[in-house]
Amino acid sequence: MSLTQELSRYFEQAVRARGVQYYQANGGIKITFSDPWEVQAVVSGSEDYAVTLTREKHNILGSCECPVAQGMAPCKHLWAVVMAAERDGHLKGEDGWSRLSFTLEEPKDEEEWGDENDWDDELDEDEDDAALAGPVGPLGAGFNSVLSGLKDFINAKSALKPRTLTWKDQLAGLGKEAKDAAVLAGVKSDWPAAREVLYVLDVPSTLSGGQPVIEILYRDRKKDGAWGVPKNKPITRTQLALIHDAHDRQILAYCAGAVQHYGQDGYYSTYSYGHADRANNLPNRVRLNTPLPEMVLPLIFESGRGRLRERSNLSEPHWAVPQWDAGAPWDFRLAVEPTPEGWELRGVLARGEETMSLNEPLVLLGSGFLFTKKLAARVDMHGAFDWIALMRRETRILVPYDQREELLQTLLHYPDLPPLDLPEDYRYEEVNVRPRPLLTIRKPEKMAVGFQPDRLRGVLSFDYEGRVVRSDHAARGFYEAEAKRFILRDRPFETEAQNTLAQNGFKYKLPDFYVREAGWDIAPNRLPKAVRALVALGWHVEAEGKVFRSAGEFKINVQSGIDWFELHGSVNFGETTASLPALLAALHRGESVVKLDDGTFGTLPEEWLNKFGLLMNLGKPQDDHIRFTKSQVAVLDALLAAQPEADYDAAFAAARDRIRTFKGVAAAEQPANFVGELRPYQKKDSAG
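Structure (tokenized):
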């Protein structure tokens, strides 16, 4: 285990959190002496405090000059130095950091604790420490309450006598900023021009997590000119600007936003020095989640400083150095070949005339990269990473000769199938067919009390030349063995059909506590309009066992009687028709569908309903027609004008012509023997 893991139980969470802040602050900790048995440091806060950690067999003895530690409570300064000791590998003694305990050194004499201003500054800054710190030492748990009471006393005294800031106090903040700036300016000497950054792909961690794990190291030249051992100390964000290589600056900037990785066991610690973002440190071990692999991996291996570490215990001389292959991507394919034992199914990587065994790469990433000991390259997986994992594990799959067709049908069923390499006599044709949408609507099966029964649920399917498949089924299509053809599903068309449902008031719902299966919900009062729109688009719609048809050609003709006109008409609904009286009767009942002779239902177009609804009140329905009087010829003429294909007999044509040619009644002069004078309107009346 790590040093912080071993000792964290002796420090309360709030104390550790404050210690992290000190550890992360630039210039906050200065190590003055260190070896496997002791660490001496100065921690700078409101004051500079001397901290010592001494190892005695399996115990770490800690001391700090701050009031909290002098009161026998582990303080934030001690925890900050513990983290620094872990970072630099100190206090390991003879057998590492296992089975360690922690105790505090006895407090100093009372006069050495400092004056009340020291307490006031430290307690203001350490309120959480004093309230939450766990006791370690002979004073026991009661010391917390004593410490809390002492703080109350100091606060009360301060309230009676407000502290006046001196000019030195007022300028202290500026001095600290100047000190920090000087520390940051000094990092130039920490990044020699010849220093080289290495990026190590950790193969075991990458394979276990499925995402590339990169460890960022750097190395310097030794006096003899050879490269020294790579170091895994974090690079600061300030140092990033000083790195000469533009590739490195870009890679490290990307990695700054990656997820920090804490080793093969996935161990996570808030106090890991690799995650010290507030300490201006970049993470030095990262997991590249999408889209970072596409952005970072080519840069790493183009730089020539990408490495592959097959095992965690391999040292730098044994790391592989893959060269970046900027050529066309490798192509993952499934090959079916005859062997003496039967048909063999195996995965291959191909590029032009080149082939590569699927097990040759040390790493194959779902983000589209492969890594061997010699090369790093892109690979087109066709979305079939599960197939790659299967074929790398199984190497090959044997199928008896007499099950060849069943094998092909099974393979083609999978939605993520990569390209197939088949023998000549085993190949098939892929065809595209435009399907017909099928919508089946019914009341959903009630699963629990509380379900709202006023909703209807539709199931969307598609008819591919007699092959029906639900929209939520994953199959790629249908294989016809006799014809040796594979009917591909038209995914863009199916998506557009789903959009059409949404535009007509349907809403897709997943299974829940109330309804067993997924489907498209709609309110009953919105169904008629939606059905009319869908069947008009050529959909097959069935609701509660009723099959709906869209209206086709509308035929209308007028026949003359003795003193009436008969309006005959019908609407074609596929293989059957509906008479005009039946249509008007449905309209009179407030229905927008009419039952047809074959038991199906015809939908009445909304424009037809608006146009012919007036006939209900103007004509008199008969068995197979609507009767109008002679005086209603103008009404019929207006109706037929909207139906250019309408037919009529000669008697109606003559009556219509008389109406059209009628120009009004001319005024007549009054008779000579008429005594008086007629007004103009009276002259028109007398002409009649």
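Residues 432-544 form one domain. The chain has five domains: 3-163, 187-321, 330-427, 432-544, 550-661.
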